[in-house]
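Hi Y.,

Following your request, here is the sequence exactly as I used it, all 255 residues.
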Amino acid sequence: MTETTVREFDDAAALVAAAADDLVAVIEQAQAERGFASIVLTGGTNGNALSAALREKVIDWSRVDVFFGDERFVPGDDPDRNALQAQDALLDHVPVPSERVYTFPAADEFSGDGELAARVYAKRLADNAGERGNGVAVGSAGGALVPRFDVHLLGMGGEGHINSLFPHTDAIREQDATVVSVRDSPKPPPRRLTLTLPAVGAARRVWFLVSGADKSEAVAAGVGGASPEDWPCAGAHGSEQTVWYLDGAAASRLG
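Below is the corresponding structure, written out as tokens. Let me know if you'd prefer a different format.
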């Protein structure tokens, strides 16, 4: 497991600005080394703020693959969809090729079959990994292929959930599939699609964007190495780097 780094900032705006600058540098490095970069966007207040901040950066979007860590399994035109929020904040404003944006299926596709939708997105991940020659086999049997994302961005809930992986659920325990359907999310809407911990762990870098005192207990648990069953954030680590971008309130329970 790689070393975990904690970076503390005065407020949410400062942590978002720093993460945006850092992400530009990683994208440039990846493009110089391999010709393209692979990033996983996250929603929520800080995630959407970061997406908006990227609009002002000089980035060669023609050589960026964009993925999502999870999605609300609602109709395609539902404003709760992370993909629509990312479009509003970023993707409609930059020249990223549509075929390089890997959105999750919506609930009005595949007759609303969430399990099938999860398998479809898992195949999209595997196909990209194979096409790009940038894959890693994960799962207990090593049979699931997923891209080696350059950065997987994560927000976090007060109970430590990441993507749509909540405490004490089948999804957080999943060790084989890279994508699963969630039917009973404790946070609405109840139906979701999410990358699992093995897929998150395929990323070179996992970056948390967390602000607010209500997140401080979960931050302390995640940084301190608690059980992912109890605190899902504790199970998310990049293969090369894990960074927590925090404001002072979120970091207040760290020693």
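The chain has one domain: 4-247.

Thanks again,
Q.
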